[in-house]
Amino acid sequence: MRRLESLAIGTAICAHDLTTVLAGHKNVSTEQLLDELAAGHRNVGSGSPLLDLLRAIHAQDMRRMAELLVDLFGRDQGAFFDLIVELGRYAADCVSMLEILGIRPVAETLTELEITVREYASS
To answer: What backbone torsions phi and psi does residue 76 show, to the nearest 5 degrees?
Structure first.
């Protein structure tokens, strides 16, 4: 479980960092962008563990982040694995958007994410 939790948290940290960069480009706070994304999820009729996890990271609430992951894993392991895939897909979409919008080339973004992941893994 510990390795899976580390994978989910590391991916979520990268997704959060990318969300912060995109929010800055939009001239809104990260919280405002997360609110916009959450409103979109509500419109399609579902909650989002991804957004809940990003909010916990944004609030630097490690206890809440751990609770979300442990609860999800205990309730539905398939949903936990789906969350990891969704985090990866979301992060990849953010990397693409940063390049499409001319904010940052993919190679530069991936280098920064590598640093982020190495820092997380060594902490």
So the answer is: -160, 95
Looking at residue 121, its pLDDT comes to 83
Average of per-residue pLDDT across 1-7: 83
For 51-70, letters b (16+ CB in 10 Å) and e give bbbbbbbbeeeeeebeebbe
Which residues, other chains included, contact 111 with Cβ-Cβ below 8 Å and sequence gap of 6+? none
**91 to 70, 71, 98, 106, 123: CA distances (angstroms):** 22, 23, 11, 12, 21
Spell out the domain ranges in the chain.
2-122
Asked if residues 105 and 33 have their Cβ atoms less than 8 Å apart, the reply is no
Angle between helices 62-75 and 49-58 (to 10 degrees): 160
pTM as predicted? 0.87
CA distance 94 to 114: 15
